[in-house]
Design goal:
The complex is a heterodimer. By secondary structure, chain A is α+β, with helices and mostly antiparallel strands. Chain A has helices spanning 59-64, 68-76, 83-98, 104-133, 136-157, 177-201, 205-211, 219-224, 230-233, 241-244, 265-289, 317-329, 369-380, 386-396, 400-404, and strands at 18-23, 35-41, 44-51, 166-167, 170-171, 335-344, 347-356, 363-367. In chain A, a hairpin with a 2-residue loop joins strand 6 (335-344) and strand 7. In chain A, helix 3 (83-98) runs antiparallel to helix 4 and helix 6 (177-201) packs antiparallel against helix 11. The longest helix of chain A is centred in the N-terminal third of the chain and has 30 residues, at 104-133. Chain B is α/β, with parallel strands linked by helices. Chain B has one domain (4-138): Beta Polymerase, domain 2 (2-Layer Sandwich). Chain B has helices at residues 4-13, 37-47, 113-124, 161-173, and strands spanning 18-24, 27-32, 52-60, 75-83, 88-96, 102-104, 127-129. In chain B, the strands form two sheets. A five-stranded mixed sheet of chain B has the order 1-2-5-4-3, covered by helices on one side. The longest helix of chain B has 13 residues, at 161-173. Chain B starts with a helix and ends in a 16-residue tail after the last helix. Classes of the chains: A alpha+beta, B alpha/beta. Chains A and B meet through helix 1, helix 8, strand 6, strand 7 and strand 8 of A and strand 3 and helix 3 of B.
């Protein structure tokens, strides 16, 4: 047996409870590579300084050197937990900028995959949030349903996490009968599954003690911090991009925006649960109302997948170059700038484009909700306990791929 | 989405500050003089209930050619404001010259502007006067240059110094590698 080694850290007399520690970037409760520098008095946080950037890949710079079509794959790598929603957000923005019409069926398909990814994003958020607080079973249950959705994504477009499913002007592939059947089964079963999570934690004493009155945000503070999504709605502010700026087919389906009242961690948790019910409701409408028709517009400047069943069209390298060239040479691009927000599971994902009429954006700015939510940690974590910081990071539902871009 | 009223209100209240306004794809945009951006933002937030700061970003106009737009200075800071109550959106654009690359910070109005301005400083090199903690955020502290400026290359000719240090350290520690004892020499090298 080797003797355990201890190190005496000298502390100044009379100030023994004052610590400075660095939590992360490899800490499992920070949801990725987030580092939080903490100034502690005992277990109370005096000051909390989040550090990000470990995952910075320079998407905004890269985007200026690639065409609009090529930039689509970058958006998968933003919020990799719910990548479909990012794809849709990017395509909606570029289509508005370039004036491309999307057929109705594609709009419904987008709404469908958006809501599927919203459910899977919320499930992962809830799973890790509960795991951080100590509820292991919720994690297992949530991943069970998430798995079903990811399998459906794989069947739909061949990838589970980085689907690149949408195309400028539509979507890549049509849904098959098998997918719709499976989705329908999922939609029928899912409300009962949500109830299962609720029986585990909804009135659980430990869960209530860890979440009620923790990380409370007033509506004014939340707006001032630019917080969006369920985290804002937990504070009772009625701001949902799907209602304020309807995109895809959100103006054709019926759903409600659940609001919290107290603005604490528990209210945000309830908001996410209710949102999953609403998403399920939207999915059901999508299945029922799915209109027939083309899935991609005629003027879509894109690498369109072959429509013929069972035959693969070989696209060799020069031809592929030609297809990309097509978009570079298009003269229909309008000059100007546009900001298009969309509602992704984490909050408001906005794309600000400046086009100077060429095939690639002159400037692409991504307004990522996670970046702003982590920025809010500093204000939210002041004066709370270390254990509550874990709950706050969980409840803000951040993902570092989106934060660092 | 009628926010013409706001543009007119702004023109009335700040006749000298509003340089131009236009509408593109249904979105309103106002070009504002740099010096009083804080006052304009405060007016919009308090009097026009533009309480949600959607987006703040910097733009480098140095290689931009445009037939419809006019820009006299190199940099630009773009603010996107939204009123949750009245559902109106407005975009403010301010020109920032290269030799005096600074603008007033709006962190006193929106706490959330803190990180957005830091990001803009980090990637574009625009200084925000009155910002409480203007440091680099996405790139390492010892990074050189501002990546989103147009003259900054997409791919540089050398590695970041921190990466070189890391590689040297990894080489130094490789003799303690767990696997190197089990396998023949050379397999991992």
């Amino acid at each position: 047996m080797s003797k355990a080694m201890t190190v005496d850290i000298p502390v100044s007399a009379g100030d023994e409870d004052h610590y400075r520690i660095k939590m992360g970037p490899q800490h499992p409760a920070t949801h990725g590579v987030l580092r939080v520098d903490l100034d502690l008095q005992g277990e109370t946080i005096l000051e909390c300084v989040p550090h990000v950037g470990y995952l910075h890949r320079g998407f905004e710079k890269l985007a200026e050197h690639r065409s609009y079509v090529q930039n689509l794959v970058l958006t998968d790598r933003l919020d990799y937990i719910a990548a479909m929603a990012n794809n849709v957000g990017y395509c909606e923005a570029v289509e508005k900028l370039l004036g491309i019409e999307v057929p109705l069926r594609a709009r419904y398909l987008r709404t469908m995959v958006c809501e599927m990814s919203r459910i899977s994003g919320h499930l992962l958020g809830l799973a890790t949030h509960a795991l951080d607080i100590g509820a292991m079973t919720v994690f297992l249950y949530c991943f069970r349903e998430r798995e079903t959705l990811l399998e459906l994504f794989a069947e739909l477009c061949g990838a589970r996490l980085t689907p690149t499913y949408t195309r400028l002007g539509g979507v890549r592939q049509d849904v098959t009968h098998s997918i719709m059947m499976k989705l329908e089964r999922f939609v029928n079963e899912f409300p009962a599954n949500i109830e299962e999570y609720e029986t585990l934690i909804d009135t659980n004493r430990i869960w209530l003690m860890r979440t009620v009155d923790v990380g409370t945000l007033s509506a004014e503070d939340a707006v001032s911090l630019s917080i969006t999504g369920p985290s804002l709605r937990g504070s009772g502010v009625d701001y949902d991009i799907r209602k304020h700026f309807p995109y895809a087919a959100y103006d054709l389906v019926d759903f409600e925006v659940p609001l919290g009242e107290t603005g604490d961690t528990y209210a945000r948790y309830r908001c996410r649960i209710e949102e999953m019910h609403q998403s399920n409701h939207i999915l059901r409408q999508c299945i029922e109302q799915m209109p027939p028709g083309p899935i991609i517009g005629d003027d879509a400047p894109d690498l369109v997948m072959p429509v013929k069943q069972g035959r693969k069209l070989e696209v060799d390298a020069p031809a592929r170059q030609g297809l990309i060239k097509l978009i570079e040479d298009r003269e229909t691009f309008m000059e100007g700038d546009i900001y298009v927000p969309t509602e992704v599971p984490k909050g408001e994902l906005g794309f600000y484009f400046i086009s100077d009429g060429k095939g690639s954006p002159y400037r692409m700015h991504i307004r990522s909700p996670s970046f702003i939510h982590i920025g809010a940690l500093k204000t939210m974590a002041k004066g709370v306990m270390v254990a509550d910081l874990i709950a706050i990071i969980g409840t803000m539902d951040v993902v570092l791929g989106e934060c660092d871009r | 989405m009628e926010s013409n009223g706001i543009v007119e209100k702004l023109r009335e209240k700040f006749p000298d500050e509003v340089l131009a306004d236009y509408q593109h794809l249904g979105q309103n945009c106002v070009l504002i003089r740099r010096d009083h951006i804080l006052d304009v933002c405060r007016y919009l937030r308090d009097e026009c209930s533009m309480n949600h700061l959607m987006c703040l970003c910097g733009v480098d106009n140095s290689t931009r050619t445009s037939t419809v737009d006019s820009f006299s200075e190199r940099f630009e800071v773009v603010y996107q404001l939204y009123s949750i109550a009245t559902k109106q959106m407005i975009r403010l654009r301010t020109q920032v010259p290269e030799d005096d690359c600074s603008i007033e910070s709006i962190t006193s109005l929106w706490i959330g502007a803190d990180w957005l301005e830091r990001e803009c400083f980090d990637l574009m090199g625009i200084h925000f006067d009155g910002h409480p903690d203007l440091r680099r955020i996405l790139t390492p502290d010892d990074w050189e240059g501002h990546p989103l400026r147009k003259e900054y290359p997409l791919r540089g000719d050398r590695e970041w110094i921190g990466y070189e240090e890391l590689k040297a350290k990894s080489k130094e520690l490789s003799k303690f590698d767990f696997h190197s004892r089990d396998h023949e020499k050379g397999e991992h090298e």
